[in-house]
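Case study 2.
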Amino acid sequence: MTEPIVRLIDPTPGIPAAEAGSFLAQLDDQNLCLTEDTRGATPAELAWQPRPGTNTIGMLIAHIAIVEVYWLMVASESVGPDYFERLRGVLGIGPDDDGIPAAADALPPATLAGKDLAFYDDLMARARRFTRDIVARWKPADLDGRVQRVSRRDGSTWIMNRRWIVYHVLEHQAGHYGQINLLRHLYRAQVGVEVAR
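Prediction:
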């Protein structure tokens, strides 16, 4: 008889708001899955585009990290005129260095040229440390707290609670993680390179 496969998500210890700790645990699990599923990806694969104007695996990983830090800045109400520099201070890259959204004929951004998995793993770790530091300060009622931001794209005003923000960071990462897995399959099929599993 085989042992059962056990799948559990418990709130991250040390986070006063258990709900925030649960989101953090879910994000950490997504990071673990992403890490496992990208092992063996070379710099060439990380920078490969099915055609100009499409995202690369590297662009998507950088984008996941940038978006996580940005939205946690929003959640902590610390997005000010200096947020470009603050984000660069956290990640070592700026908010536009992922090349997303890409113009229809765009190649991958020069800021990511030649980057390897260690670079992208570090981006994800930096983003998660930032997130952990912020949610560790939240009390349970803080998830109900509402924050407001003005979109830099179209000037619209968004009002959201912190619960939605951490949900959005989670669903955003999960969506792009699916794209990354698809790109790995396309790379293997179109370039003919065996993807390590």
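The chain has a mean pLDDT of 93.
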